[in-house]
Design a protein that fits this description.
single chain, alpha+beta, five-stranded antiparallel β-sheet, three-stranded mixed β-sheet, Aminomethyltransferase, mitochondrial, transaminase activity, aminomethyltransferase activity, GCVT_N
């Protein structure tokens, strides 16, 4: 028997939101069915990527679910309402280490980014970021992202985990075009922890 569930992981601290429609198999009754389900879940969990905060989530009662190939907490011991109210009355942090983080280096970094997004990157002040969109040649939306113009000589880009392969392929293809035209630009894909304050 198959049941359809919706699992949502919000990262509104970055102004981004992602959700995933998954299918959950409900095993038959009996011990053998439960053991098989546990083995399958354990095997599936072992193949998921883990953020640097994975152990912290588990130690604090995080209910871990698959999201975009990552094992991510969807809930802790408190109810969703208690968590929501805590965030509204105080603050919360979100582990967004699964998101694609990229540094764009080189003299032509602004021109490079502006060739792919709808934001005016050149007008950003140092250490100022903006929400924008990756677009294709026809103006269609590929993904949303945040671009920050740092005072350290690079642009810092954060885009969605669910689109990481597509986004990195898009940037690499454009990079090849820019390098072929003699432009000075390079990409550095990061594998670092990232948290967002909400």
């Amino acid at each position: 028997m198959w049941a359809r569930v919706l699992v949502g992981v919000g990262v509104s601290g970055l102004g981004l939101r992602a959700s995933r429609d998954g299918v959950l198999r409900v095993a038959g009754a009996g011990c053998a069915g439960r053991r098989q389900q546990q083995r399958q879940a354990s095997s599936a969990e072992a193949t998921l990527k883990k953020t640097p905060l994975f152990d912290f989530h588990r130690q604090h009662g995080g209910k871990m679910v698959e999201f975009a190939g990552w094992s991510m907490p969807v809930q802790y011991k408190d109810s969703h309402i208690a968590s929501h109210m805590h965030t509204r009355e105080h603050c919360s942090i979100f582990d967004v280490s699964h998101m694609l983080q990229t540094k764009v280096h080189g003299r032509d970094r602004v021109k490079f980014m502006e060739s792919m997004v709808v934001a005016d990157i050149a007008e950003l002040k140092d250490n100022q970021g903006t929400l924008s969109l990756f677009t294709n040649e026809k103006g269609g939306i590929i993904d949303d992202l945040i671009v920050t113009k740092t005072d350290q000589g690079y642009l810092y880009v954060v885009s969605n985990a669910g689109c990481a392969d597509k986004d990195s392929a898009h940037m690499k293809a454009r990079l090849a075009e820019f390098k072929a035209a003699g432009c000075d630009v390079d990409l550095e894909f990061l594998d670092e922890a990232l948290i967002a304050l909400q």
